């Protein structure tokens, strides 16, 4: 997608200093979510590199990845699979622990959410350090799926999260903040 078409999205994203903790500059996407034209633009841009591929499932990461992932799945005529924090899914799950700067966390997916051989796209709102996305990709591959790539609305390039994902297939981010 042409850079000039993305400018309205970049302008709409609100910077919130010191949220959720001091020293963090939070990228607030709620103004984009509130505007149907901007949401369409965001989904169009996130889908574009994968349009024309046969995708069976789109996996979205808790919680804003559910918003983007479900809309992308609908656009691609694919199913949607949520990857959630530990204990949030009501059925049998597979899970993976991953490291954070200050400890560990766990994400889970239903055991029957993805069938071996299905073609899968990962979608989320933000690629930061890459830990959560890498954990979700681990679950996708553990299920025996064929990962076609990952798509993110925003990438915080200075955190180098892409390095955790590059070996897993194409990584696309619509907007990159240094």
The helix content is 25-40%
Roughly how many Å apart are the termini?
Answer: 18 Å
Q: In CATH terms, what is the fold-level topology?
A: Rossmann fold
- Show unreliable segments: none
Biggest beta-sheet profile: 7 strands, mixed
> How many strands?
9
* Count of helical regions: 5
Strand content: 25-35%
Strand order of the largest sheet: 5-6-4-3-7-8-9
User: Can you name the CATH architecture?
Assistant: 3-Layer(aba) Sandwich
Mean pLDDT score:
95
How many separate domains make up the residues?
Answer: 1
CATH class: Alpha Beta
Order of helices and strands: HEEHHEHEEEEHEE
Overall 3D shape: globular
Radius of gyration: 16 Å
Structural class: alpha/beta
Please summarize what this structure is.
Helices cover 28% and strands 34% of the residues. The protein has 178 residues and is α/β, with parallel strands linked by helices. The two termini are 18 Å apart.
